[in-house]
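in:
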């Protein structure tokens, strides 16, 4: 007997006969949370209102991922390129982790969620980093969903650092050229110890990776929607997962 979770019927293409099959869940879902600024602009609101509304979607999708049994949820919150935005916007964004955690950390703990961060810590303001690190420490012994925030993250930088660390080991004769393989590389990426994403979701209609997890997404299913991130609902998340479950995953084999 196959256990199925029936999606509520809404305005999407979801049909009442389309179930999310709980036995074929993606283990790791990664999301590019795009369209917060555009969502605000369409409503005549400042971009910051879009970012704030996007935070509510983070909460919503985290809870839904947990409920469905997803093990890892990686969210692209701030890229290494986002520093080019106006200073006022960057300043606002850097306050969001603390704001989010003040409101949500207790419930995340109650739900056994593990908060993690992937990115380059050096350039982050100390109040941002300390809020995130406090959440990481407080949830380190939890065993449920891993909620991994990509914060000041860039895939090229991540790969360059991995390559430099391998080169240093070769130079110091701790490794030879023949020792270098995909596992050696994967172990030095910020996702070391995590499985690769099974599914990438990008909202707001852009069809690019934008320097996000380029090594790890090599075999992932990609799912794009025009929906802006602040409007991304549990129903849209289920839709993405159902599409993932429908696709034959062949890993380039036969
Ligand atoms: C703005 C949409 C949660 C994307 C979501 C600093 C853009 C809302 C966090 C967060 C952001 C990060 C780490 C953490 C807890 C929460 C967050 C940023 C932007 C960039 F430990 N939302 N959120 N961080 N936005």
């Amino acid at each position: 007997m196959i256990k199925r979770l029936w999606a509520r019927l809404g305005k999407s293409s979801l049909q009442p006969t389309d179930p999310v099959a709980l036995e074929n869940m993606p283990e790791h879902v990664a999301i590019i949370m795009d369209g917060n600024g555009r969502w605000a602009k369409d409503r005549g609101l400042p971009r910051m209102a879009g970012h704030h509304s996007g935070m509510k979607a983070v909460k919503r999708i985290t809870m839904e991922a947990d409920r469905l049994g997803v093990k890892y949820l990686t969210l692209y919150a701030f890229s290494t390129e986002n520093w080019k935005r106006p200073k006022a916007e960057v300043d606002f964004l850097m306050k969001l982790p603390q704001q989010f955690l003040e409101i949500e950390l207790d419930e995340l703990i109650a739900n056994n969620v593990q908060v993690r961060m992937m990115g380059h810590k050096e350039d982050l303001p100390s109040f941002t980093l300390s809020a995130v690190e406090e959440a990481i420490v407080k949830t380190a012994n939890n065993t449920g969903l891993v909620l991994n925030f990509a914060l000041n993250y860039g895939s090229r930088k991540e790969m360059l650092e991995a390559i430099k660390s391998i080169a240093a080991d070769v130079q110091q004769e701790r490794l030879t050229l023949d020792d270098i393989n995909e596992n050696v590389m994967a172990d030095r990426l910020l996702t070391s110890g995590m499985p690769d994403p099974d599914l990438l979701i990008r909202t707001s209609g852009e069809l690019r990776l934008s320097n996000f997890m380029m090594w790890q997404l090599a075999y992932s299913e990609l799912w794009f929607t025009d929906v802006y991130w602040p409007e991304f609902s549990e129903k849209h998340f289920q839709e993405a997962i159902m599409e993932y479950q429908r696709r034959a995953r062949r890993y380039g084999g036969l």
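note: The helical segments are 36-42, 47-68, 87-110, 126-138, 155-171, 182-187, 234-246.
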